[in-house]
Amino acid sequence: MSPPATDSGHINHYTPAEINGSHNDKVESSKPKVNSMLPSIPRSFDGAFIVIPPEILRRVVVASAKGFSIGAGLKGGLALFAILARFARKKPPRKEIVVTNGEVIVTALKETLRYGLFLGTFAGTFVSMDELIGALGGHRRTARWRTLLAGAVAGQSMLLTGLEAQHTSLAIYILMRAAVLATRCGIKSERFGRICKPLTWKHGDIFLMCLSSSQILSAYILNQESLPASYKSFLNKHGGKDPVILQGVKDIATGRPFSNLNAIKKYYKTVGVDVKLDPNMKVPCTIVHGNQSCSGHIVSFLIQAYKRALPVYLPVYLIPALIVHRKGLLKRPFTILAKGLIGTARSSLFLSVYCASAWMWTCFLFRLFKRCNIPMVATGTFPTGLALAIEKKSRRMEISLYCLARAIESFFTCIADAGYLPQSRTIKRADVVVFSLSTAIIMHCYAQERDVFRSKYLNVLDWVFGVPPPPCETPRCKDT
User: Fold this and answer.
1) Which superkingdom heads the taxonomic lineage of this protein's source (predicted)?
2) Residue 102 CB neighbours (<10 A)
3) Residue 20's pLDDT is what?
């Protein structure tokens, strides 16, 4: 007997006789009927197993495979460019660094696999929970909250990135993304529209970037331990200053006696500069750029910063082009690749101007007020965020939220280090809780408020999870 036709992506309504054969018709007829709330879970007559229709199984497997490909592709692509940059580096590594190239490659492969499993499991878990809840409670009855719960459960897959490793930055960033979506939903609603209206300010993304820059760059100079290790490494590379120079600026800003003037002199001698440092100096410009003038330093720094930024943005533009524009790449490869190269050049200019202006603004304020202290550092790094105006409008909010997540983490770490949040250190895996809450909001918006997503993100979500069917097309809706 052939099974009844059903909608694609939903569990078929098999009868017990169709599962077990006509031989069990009489046996089944003597039993009480199964609760009507469970019509879409086909079982054997004794309830020993559940038959999963191939459409559902296929959706789970495909979503898991696509999630794995995105996670492994992004992480692996970034790791590949980092390894290539390491091999192309002319200057030999420092003596204290004993990590070999083989160990770096093995670590990159492990991280690639972990993030692939993380996103693959997330996608598979979400689809499984979505189908299971819909089967148990009915797709139409559970439509408004099903993806909310499924997203929260799928968020636990973050544990696959490492049971001991904390991913606070990633969790806060996803929370920021969820907050943006929730805000867009609020703007649409009559009840919360007025409250959320100020958040639609035209240049709000640049303001957030300035606010984030004040915390991040201040921490880069004054308290690097408050930053995530990977982000600290990123800033040390693109900040373009040796740690001994940063320590000298920190000594002046915090009002402490100099602890490393001789180390600063030795550093400048290694680059062919003989610099004289006054132990009683009030302005650290000589420490920052030696015998160069402030304006000359900014020009030379900008050129070097642009060279450092180019390898960062090549994978950022090329890898998504292979995923998001995979079909168009075959039809018009030159157009898409040209846009990617232009985007790379533009974003590299943003990053280089951002880093150069950080030293420009601080030097300007130090010279203007003839002093250097912590408030001056925080004030001087605030207008650095104006460099975000170089970027495309569509990318500004993305970048500002990325930096805001790290600024929030750094801020609360500084507060905790000062003793104002002593209990925060005892919270275990708060990142997983925050991430699960965020993915619940995001996946709920994906199913119920699709218009709050930008098209490029919606295309990726549709490719992985499949477009959620409208409530009136579900089997339960058709049955009622």
Assistant:
1) Eukaryota
2) 8
3) 43
Handedness of CA 209, 210, 216, 217 (dihedral sign): positive
- In the chain, count H helices and then E strands: 20, 0
**Packing angle between helix 393-417 and helix 168-188, nearest 10 degrees?**
130
Full-model pTM: 0.65
CA-CA distance, 159 to 161, in Å (whole number)? 5
**How far is C-alpha 279 from the geometric centre of its chain's CA atoms?**
43
**159, 436 in Cβ contact below 8 A?**
no
Residue 260 CA, distance from chain mean position: 37
- Cβ neighbours, 10 Å, residue 367: 11
> Under the phi-then-psi rule, with left for phi > 0, alpha for psi from -120 to 50, and beta for the rest, what region is 138?
left
- Cβ–Cβ under 8 Å, residues 286 and 273: no
Task: Give the C-alpha distances (Å, rounded to integers) separating 74 from 13, 79, 108, 397.
Answer: 40, 9, 12, 20
Query: 397 to each of 110, 174, 177, 391, 457, how far by Cα in Å?
Result: 31, 13, 10, 10, 14
Helix or strand holding residue 455 (H, E):
helix 455-465
State both tokens at 359: 């030293």
Token pair, residue 82, equals: 């980092």
Count of C-beta atoms within a 10 Å radius of residue 326: 11
Reduced to 3 states (helix: H, G, I; strand: E, B; else coil), residue 272 is coil
| SS3 label, residue 420 | coil
In DSSP notation, 342-409 reads: HHHHHHHHHHHHHHHHHHHHHHHHHHHHT---HHHHHHHHSGGGGGGGGS-HHHHHHHHHHHHHHHHH
Of the candidates 136, 140, 40, 127, which has an alpha carbon nearest to the alpha carbon of residue 467? 127
> Cα(38)–Cα(188) distance, rounded to whole angstroms?
36
Rounded to whole angstroms, the Cα distance separating 70 from 82 reads 18
DSSP code, position 239: S
Q: How far apart are CA 419 and CA 220, in angstroms?
A: 20
DSSP code of 50? B
What's the angle, vertex CA 71, arms to CA 401 and CA 89, rounded to 5? Answer: 80
Per residue in 116-137, pLDDT (tens digit) is 898 999 999 999 998 888 888 8
Write out pLDDT tens, residues 408-466. Answer: 888 988 888 777 765 545 567 788 888 999 999 999 988 888 888 887 788 888 888 87
Distance between alpha carbon 102 and the CA centroid of its chain, in Å? Answer: 28
